[in-house]
């Protein structure tokens, strides 16, 4: 007899999600906030994130932008695209000992595309892309936070449901307007963090898509898990932190998809509970997915390791002083203090600085230092949150706190000094991703307060006040990133003990020609850091130009004593010694500079000047030839060769060198002028005239150009034209040597001709 009973059909994953979502408390129920449709919520987030940083769109290239963009040959068309995969972020070969090993080829590729479409180094396009990226990321955050705060659930049609629309909007707004993000958005180099974050989020959303039931009824999609791994790899090729998304995906799978109770699991593992065999961690699918993530992550890291090489990046003590401390205790204490400062920047992002190295944060060397309180406060809060995340009986609370801590801590691990030394003390840009965790914890804390508060509107107004304050702070900070002068000066009040800040202010002033003010800041930089060789070098250069040669020599000698391979300081020391007429010492300094930097065209140029002063003409010509071989556009070296050959009567050779130089640098008016002089002496008047006129067109206010053209016309017999250009030359420079005498000779000759004609 056939039974009339039907077998109960096993519930699919979507039904399980639906039931669990109904059982769990809704975070939005306690949050007193605006409820907007998803489309409008994203529009609001996009608009506000744009307003925060819009005033940075026409800023300059500042700080690290110079090295990563302007001086990076990988952006130029002549560099093969394939080289990007073997160079670091700054354009150096990864195999080089001086490479920082920052492998971000996809970020550099976007810079190159910017450069191509802009037709050169125009910063507007670079800034606009950064702003668009941050707006896009902020919009994606609405979806990400809806999953992290509300859970993952799909409708019958396979559409993901937003179970926490108010909470996700608040968290996304907190992220969009956080002032600590200014460095990433307003600083073009921050493109690496923005691209990394974009693909980081896409990887997470792709992983979530893997659990949407497909037509075959499978509970997860291997395809979307693999897509998530690939997107994680792309994130890492934009910046190293991107790899951490694979770990976060695994945490999300365990906590949200499989509802694992970590404390219960740990207890079973410790006590070898036999029921572990039936535990959720061994369910079909979870181990397989985690294995895919681990294999993908290991493969990505291996490939990167093979490309990068085995050598660690080379950093100096001034970059990260705690990592060079001999005592393990001192290192541990200071690392934890740095963590507390990062946490404080998330909580109170008012004191922001472009650079936190070089004495900005003095080392803690004993437990009597009052700053130990910051460490205690950090760990008190962390331990409290971890205990709640593990021990709370509320599964909803456990999940949100664990995810918040995971997104706060895991993306920060590459910058933590735990696995390898990093080249900074604090870097605001590395908090871009960890701020996701902060926004989760803030929003959850706000929901708890709202639940307890009797006057919820007051609490909502307070949060609105925080958001508005952050918007204004972002706008102010973005304006400071618009130019190096504003950026560097803004750091003086935040990090007055940072020698690098004073150095950069001084350098900016020196570039603008304000040497007196620059000297003051360079001296302060050297006072704060007596081993700051770059400050000594720049200060020595200014003193050299002001003819304060003895102090310049002392500074430069000290710089090369501290850093014997500092090629630029050796060259500048040679220039000072040459000016002091200590020629043998100068020659030795130049050759030492070349020893430490083989390809050093400027040093060969200065060595040539030394040999010219000593009448060692062949050696001078050889040195200048080396300079032009290393740097074909070295105009000064070409000019000096032409002038020396001209002065020594080698007109044919001077002409040949001049023509060779103009082929390489066709628009250089100084080369036109020098070759025109040679051609005039060779009686090639017509060609000489053409070059003189071309040089004058390029630089019409050069008195010597008009004066020498007048001499040419004088020799050629075109006396009226000679008179005209003598007069122009004297008008531009009444004290021009020889011009007044030649002009007087011409006037007498013209008077004689007039008398004869009369």
TrEMBL record:
Domain annotation DUF1736: ranges: 311-383
Where is this gene product found? Endoplasmic reticulum; Membrane
GO aspect biological process, one term: endoplasmic reticulum unfolded protein response
The protein's Enzyme Commission number? 2.4.1.109
Q: In which pathway does it act?
A: Protein modification; protein glycosylation
Instruction: Tell me if Ion transport is a UniProt keyword of this record.
Output: no
Which SMART domains does the record associate with it?
TPR (SM00028)
User: A cellular component term (GO) from this record?
Assistant: endoplasmic reticulum
Which residue stretches, if any, does this entry annotate as coiled coil?
none
GO MF: dolichyl-phosphate-mannose-protein mannosyltransferase activity
Q: Does the keyword Transmembrane apply?
A: yes
Gene3D superfamilies linked to this entry:
Tetratricopeptide repeat domain
Keywords associated with the record: Endoplasmic reticulum, Membrane, Repeat, TPR repeat, Transferase, Transmembrane, Transmembrane helix
**Which InterPro entries does the annotation name?**
O-mannosyl-transferase_TMTC, TMTC_DUF1736, TPR-like_helical_dom_sf, TPR_rpt
Report the leader peptide range.
Answer: none
Q: How does the protein's chain sit in the membrane according to the entry?
A: Multi-pass membrane protein
Regions that span the bilayer = 33-54, 128-151, 188-208, 220-237, 243-266, 286-305, 372-391, 403-424, 430-449
Matching Pfam families: TMTC_DUF1736, TPR_11, TPR_16
Where does the record place its TPR repeats? 499-532, 533-566, 601-634, 703-736
Q: Which family does it belong to?
A: Belongs to the TMTC family.
| Name of the protein in its database record | dolichyl-phosphate-mannose--protein mannosyltransferase
**Gene behind this chain?**
Tmtc4
């Amino acid at each position: 007899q056939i039974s009339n009973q039907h077998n109960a059909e096993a519930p699919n994953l979507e039904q399980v999600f639906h039931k669990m979502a109904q059982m769990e408390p809704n975070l939005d129920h306690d949050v007193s906030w605006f409820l907007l449709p998803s489309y409008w919520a994203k529009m609001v987030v996009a608009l506000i994130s744009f307003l925060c940083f819009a005033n940075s769109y026409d800023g300059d290239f500042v700080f690290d932008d110079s090295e990563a963009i302007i001086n990076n040959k990988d952006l130029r068309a002549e560099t093969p695209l394939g080289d990007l995969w073997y160079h670091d972020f700054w354009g150096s070969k990864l195999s080089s000992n001086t490479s920082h090993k920052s492998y971000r080829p996809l970020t550099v590729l976007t810079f190159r595309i910017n450069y191509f479409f802009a037709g050169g180094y125009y910063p507007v396009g670079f800034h606009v892309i950064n702003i668009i990226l941050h707006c896009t990321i902020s919009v994606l955050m609405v979806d990400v936070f809806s999953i992290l705060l509300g859970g993952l659930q799909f409708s019958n049609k396979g559409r993901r449901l937003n179970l926490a629309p108010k909470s996700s909007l608040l968290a996304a707004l907190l992220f969009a307007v956080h002032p600590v993000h200014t460095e990433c958005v307003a600083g073009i180099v921050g493109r690496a963090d923005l691209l990394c974050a974009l693909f980081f989020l896409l990887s997470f959303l792709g992983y979530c898509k893997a659990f949407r039931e497909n037509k075959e009824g499978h509970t997860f999609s291997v395809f979307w898990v693999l897509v998530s791994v690939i997107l994680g790899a792309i994130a890492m090729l934009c910046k190293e932190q991107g790899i951490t998304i694979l770990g976060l995906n695994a945490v999300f799978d365990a906590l949200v998809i499989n509802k694992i109770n970590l404390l219960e699991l740990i207890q079973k593992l410790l006590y070898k509970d036999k029921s572990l065999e039936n535990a959720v961690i061994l369910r079909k699918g979870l181990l397989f997915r985690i294995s895919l993530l681990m294999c993908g992550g290991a493969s990505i890291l291996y490939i990167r390791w093979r490309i990068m090489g085995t050598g660690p990046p080379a950093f100096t003590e001034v970059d990260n002083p705690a990592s060079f401390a001999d005592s393990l205790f001192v290192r541990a204490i200071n690392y934890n203090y740095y963590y507390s400062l990062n946490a404080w920047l998330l909580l109170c992002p008012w004191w922001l600085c472009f650079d936190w190295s070089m004495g900005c944060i003095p080392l803690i060397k004993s437990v009597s230092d009052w700053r130990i309180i910051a460490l205690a406060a950090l760990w008190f809060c962390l331990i409290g949150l971890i205990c709640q995340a593990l021990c709370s009986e509320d599964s909803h609370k456990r999940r949100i706190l664990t995810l918040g801590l995971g997104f706060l801590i895991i993306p920060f691990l590459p910058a933590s000094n735990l696995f390898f030394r990093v080249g900074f003390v604090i870097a605001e840009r590395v908090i871009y991703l960890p701020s996701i965790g902060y926004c989760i914890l803030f929003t959850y804390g706000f929901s708890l307060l709202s639940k307890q508060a009797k006057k919820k509107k007051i609490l909502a107004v307070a949060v609105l006040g925080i958001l508005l304050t952050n918007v204004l702070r972002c706008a102010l900070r973005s304006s400071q990133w618009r130019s190096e002068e504003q950026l560097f000066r803004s750091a003086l009040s935040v990090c007055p003990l940072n020698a690098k800040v004073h150095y950069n202010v001084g350098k900016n002033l020196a570039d603008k020609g304000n040497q007196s003010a620059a000297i003051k800041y360079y001296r302060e930089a050297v006072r704060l850091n007596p081993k700051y060789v770059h400050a000594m070098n720049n200060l020595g250069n200014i003193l050299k130009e002001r003819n304060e040669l003895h102090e310049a020599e002392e500074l430069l000698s000290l710089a090369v004593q501290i850093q014997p391979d500092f090629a630029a300081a050796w060259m500048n020391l040679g220039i000072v010694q040459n000016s002091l007429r200590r020629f043998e010492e100068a020659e030795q300094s130049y050759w030492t500079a070349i020893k430490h930097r083989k390809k050093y065209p400027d040093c060969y140029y200065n060595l040539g000047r030394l040999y010219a002063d000593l009448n060692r003409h062949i050696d001078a010509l050889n040195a200048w030839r080396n300079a032009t071989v290393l740097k074909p556009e070295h105009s000064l070296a070409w000019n000096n060769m032409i002038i020396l050959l001209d002065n020594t009567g080698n007109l044919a050779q001077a002409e040949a060198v001049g023509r060779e130089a103009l082929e390489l640098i066709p628009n250089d008016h100084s080369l036109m002028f020098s070759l025109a002089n040679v051609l005039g002496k060779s009686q090639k008047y017509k060609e000489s005239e053409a070059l003189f006129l071309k040089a004058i067109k390029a630089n019409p206010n050069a008195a010597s150009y008009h004066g020498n053209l007048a001499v040419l016309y004088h020799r050629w017999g075109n006396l009226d034209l000679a008179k005209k250009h003598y007069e122009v030359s004297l008008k531009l420079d009444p004290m021009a040597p020889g011009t007044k005498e030649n002009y007087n000779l011409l006037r007498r000759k013209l008077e004689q001709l007039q008398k004869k004609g009369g």
